[in-house]
Write a structure and sequence with these properties.
Elements: E1 2-6, H1 23-41, E2 45-48, H2 58-70, E3 76-77, H3 89-96, E4 103-108, E5 112-113, E6 122-126, H4 144-156, E7 162-165, H5 187-195, E8 202-206, E9 213-217, E10 220-224, H6 228-231, E11 233-239, E12 243-250, H7 254-267, E13 285-288
Parallel strand pairs: 1-2, 2-3, 6-7, 7-8, 8-10
Antiparallel strand pairs: 1-11, 4-5, 4-6, 9-10, 11-12, 12-13
Helix pairs in contact: 1-7, 4-5
Length: about 300
């Protein structure tokens, strides 16, 4: 099966001074190209890693989903901090369709979407890391109940491949994730939860920091994905019984689309200017399944 990972989209209504410009038309042009590229790939599932909108406004969610729908694209939304700037998480679920802020999906590497009864299916854990309606603190947090749920899911998963998705990076794992508010505040607790899974290939996908970065700690691979407005691409992940292969896919329109994305990002005002593309190792990764490094008993990952 194949799935697409979209970095922080930051679909914006462009308020204030920028509302005087024709940014709405430019925005629709960019996101049409993005979703047209997504549709052309024909993936089994599309996952947006959070901050799908810039201000968390109802009209932004409505506009983004309308753009996706007219291009025949549906996607799973991971909650991001910008998504809950205005709405509560229950209110946000009206637009995302997420009945719960964190939950489990199952996918078979051959047939795609599956369920818990499928012995070959891998768990896809959708985490909830943002703080609700907190514009002054955009760091992440994973509460006790979610930590207990996460630990239980990791233990139950055995040695099958496992994919986890959260908006915020785990501290010290990926590029820029050592800076304040650019990671999960209680990353040490998340590291301890991850350490309970001592065998089996494990993948944690995140966004938030707008830069590609791929690292490995023991049997965990950490994949941080850049914002398409800065890199004009997204990740495609091919999950087969024998391997996991990740690569970036450029958006239709090439350099013109890249210029358009940067123009829209600059107009947001507070959009980061960190180097975003990363090295080639941050854009492509091949992991043979069955090659997992098991964490020895008594060893706890950094954190």
């Amino acid at each position: 099966m194949r799935f697409i990972l979209l970095g922080d989209l930051h679909y914006s209504v462009y308020q204030g001074e920028n509302s005087k410009e024709n940014y709405a038309a430019l925005r629709e042009e960019f996101f049409d190209r993005l979703f047209q590229t997504v549709r052309a790939v024909r993936a089994d599932v599309v996952i947006a890693i959070g901050d799908t909108t810039d201000n968390g406004l109802p009209e932004e969610f409505a506009g983004l989903h309308a753009c996706a729908a007219r291009n025949e694209v549906d996607f799973i939304t991971v909650n991001g901090n910008h998504d809950v700037l205005t709405l509560t998480k229950p209110e946000l679920s009206f637009y995302t369709g997420n009945r719960f802020p964190y939950y489990t999906r199952y996918f078979n590497p051959v047939t795609g979407q599956s369920d818990v009864t499928d012995p070959q299916a891998a768990r896809f854990l959708i985490l909830d890391t943002p703080k609700e309606r907190n514009p002054k603190d955009h760091g992440g947090y994973v509460g006790p109940e979610q930590l207990a749920w996460l630990t239980n899911q990791l233990i139950e998963s055995g040695d099958k491949p496992l994919f986890a998705f959260g908006h915020h990076p785990v501290g010290w794992a990926t590029r820029y994730a050592n800076f304040p508010m650019l990671n999960i505040d209680n990353s040490k607790e998340v590291w301890r939860a991850f350490a309970t899974r001592r065998k089996g290939n494990s993948f944690y996908f995140c966004g938030h920091n707008h830069a590609n970065s791929v690292t490995r700690r023991g049997n965990w691979h950490f994949i941080q994905t850049a914002a398409p407005l800065r890199t004009a691409d997204f990740r495609l992940v091919e999950f087969t019984p024998g391997k996991v292969h990740m690569r970036t896919v450029p958006l239709l329109g090439g350099a013109a689309t890249a210029r358009l994305g940067n123009q829209l990002a600059d107009a947001l005002g507070d959009f980061s200017h960190f180097p975003a593309r990363g090295f080639s190792r941050d854009r492509e990764l091949v992991v043979p399944l069955g090659s997992s490094f098991a964490i020895p008993e008594g060893v706890v990952a950094k954190g």
